[in-house]
Write a structure and sequence with these properties.
alpha/beta, Ubiquitin-like (UB roll), three-stranded mixed beta sheet, two-stranded antiparallel sheet, 42% helix, 14% strand
């Protein structure tokens, strides 16, 4: 009697054990079939490097977009004035900000593709005007020299190192003392020495 009871108990235990195994296997199969796919962990270092590169690119893009420069647009444009532009902008971008060229503008007087620097002065000459200059702060591209005896304040500021004050001083000297007979006469203007004249001699004339 006891032996028969023990045998039945073993059979029930085996049945329960098999049932548990079947349930466990079913759960695994269902999880694989309908569960969310997980990313493989075989190359965690590669994934981290890629994520860092993406973040770095985003930071660089945001940084370049946030840097602004201010340029002074003068001459034959619709609206002269100071304009803010993103770093890396070109002369054409600044002219568009100023409303574009007027009908009298000499298109040959500017290099529309030239990159701009902060504090650049862009002067667009009018047709027939004796000047053809685009200044971008540290660099000046010219096809004709600036005439010290005829240039206005804006034109004088396109000369390397000549700001608003020195341009006014040059004009004041010209009006009170008379025409410049030579480039060296610039030494008579306060704040301008021989070193400055030597530096800008290729950009100016008195003829």
């Amino acid at each position: 009697m006891v032996e028969e009871w023990i045998e039945r108990l073993k059979e029930k235990r085996t049945t329960l054990l098999m049932g548990g195994i079947i349930v466990a296997l079913t759960g695994v199969l269902v999880s694989q079939a309908f569960g969310k796919p997980s990313l493989p962990n075989d190359f965690p270092e590669i994934q981290q490097v890629e994520e860092k590169n993406v973040k770095s690119d985003r930071v660089e893009e945001e940084s370049s977009e946030s840097i602004m420069i201010t340029v002074d647009v003068k001459g034959a444009v619709v609206k002269e004035g100071l304009y803010e532009l993103p770093s890396g902008s070109r002369v054409n971008d600044a002219i568009m900000k100023a409303g574009g060229l007027t009908d009298l503008a000499d298109k040959k007087s500017v290099n529309l593709a030239q990159k701009l620097a902060d504090e650049a002065v862009i002067y667009v000459a009018s047709q027939g005007e004796n000047v053809s200059v685009v200044a971008t702060g540290s660099e000046t591209s010219s096809t004709q020299k600036i005439n010290l005896n005829t240039a206005d304040e804006a034109q004088l500021q396109t000369i390397t190192g000549i700001g608003a004050k020195k341009a006014k001083d040059i004009i004041t000297h010209r009006e009170t003392v008379g025409r410049f007979s030579s480039v060296d006469d610039l030494k008579q203007v306060a704040g301008i020495g021989q070193k400055t004249i030597d530096k800008i001699s290729s950009e100016i004339t008195v003829d």
